[in-house]
Specification:
By secondary structure, the chain is mainly alpha-helical. The chain is 75% helix and 4% strand. Helix 4 (67-82) packs antiparallel against helix 5. The relative contact order is 0.07.
């Protein structure tokens, strides 16, 4: 019974998502909306990533002893200059661990 529910919900979810893709023709979407849709993915990514970096406890922490902020700055610099996703992740995590160890956070 559990597998029937899981498969049924998967089919319903897939049907709902494909209905929007299959029924809307790309040329029918106005150019202004298509231009705005290009910013949806970066906005969602920023909304997911920024709060854990800036919020410590109950307040925004922009102090230089915030290890997450330091690591994010290093990861951003690596991404900017090298355009490497893997390099950004590795460099950012290494910086985070090092900053946490140095700052005792």
């Amino acid at each position: 019974m559990l597998w029937l529910i899981i498969v049924s919900m998967a089919v319903v979810t897939f049907a709902m998502r494909i209905s929007f893709i299959a029924t809307v023709k790309p040329h029918a979407i106005p150019e202004a909306i298509r231009g705005v849709l290009a910013y949806v993915a970066p906005a969602v990514l920023a909304a997911i990533v920024v709060p854990p970096i800036l919020v410590r406890g109950d307040a925004v922490d922009l102090s230089p002893d915030n290890p997450r902020l330091i690591a994010a700055a290093v990861a951003f610099a690596i991404a900017w200059f090298t355009k490497s996703v893997v390099g950004s992740i590795v460099g950012g995590m290494a910086t985070l661990w090092l900053a946490q160890w140095i700052l005792g956070a």
